[in-house]
Design goal:
This protein has two domains: about 90 residues, Rossmann fold; about 130 residues, NAD(P)-binding Rossmann-like Domain (Rossmann fold), CATH 3.40.50.720. The radius of gyration is 19 Å and the shape is globular. Strands 1-11-8-7-5-6 form a six-stranded parallel beta sheet. A three-stranded parallel beta sheet has the order 3-2-4, sandwiched between helices. By secondary structure, it is of the alpha/beta class. It contains ten helices and eleven strands. The chain starts with a strand and ends with a helix.
Amino acid sequence: MGATIIDGNALAAKAKAEVQIRVRELTTAGQRVHLSAVLVGSTPAGELYASRQRQACAAVGIDYDLITLPHDSDHAAVAHAIQRLNSDASVTGIMLHLPLPPHLDATELQYAIDPVKDVEGVNPANIGNVVYGHTLIAPCTARAVIELIEWTKVPLQGAEAVIVGASEIAGKPIALLLAEKLATVTLCHIATRDLPSHTRRAEVLVSAVGKPNLITAAHVRPGAVVVDVGINRVRQPDGSFKTTGDVEYEPVRDLAGFITPVPGGVGPMTVAMLLKNTLRSAELRQAGR
């Protein structure tokens, strides 16, 4: 019969509807939810992403504005813009568009964002809270993966979970959040020897590498939950491009118990988690955090 598809579009729509209700309640109580995004260097891709963010926020009642800085802005100028947003009581959430121009250090600038307003969950303080099991705001992609897995109702306590990819915004926080659920977690990366020997043990397998067809049927345990975080643009023989994940979809779908498609899986859910985190920031402010 093949795997059950984990429909990220449907789950994201449900999450957005819940956010909309809560945003309306906060607004009625006098607390506006307001996301400010900082974009350094105006590019067509950056402007398009910001436009889509604006539309997503508007759909659930979140105020949105974009602060665009020149491409040659130095660290002090970007940090000043972030500090101004930190001190602005009307702004409840802040995000910094990546990638930044190469002369800027993203980690240092993310550290400048107030942890309570850090809607992407990338401030080292928020990552540290995940490590200690006191999650304040989790990285959007990691939170999306956890919610998609939980939808399957597969018990995580004691489950073998394998994460392929050890990035700071995906692989590592996903591993930490799964460990918080008492899964037994293996984190694989570029230096892992004999990757299939690890992945074939996984009841829950997450790939977050960005390499097309990295995960084949030979890597997958029958009945496993397979979550594909990868987004790759692959040129087709006719010169067109196709968006694919890390997972060789059709062969793995025949073997797995649950699987996320690409597109339509983790991507839309990550957008929904950004909105959820923006709401969370406003709720923390309301609570005096």
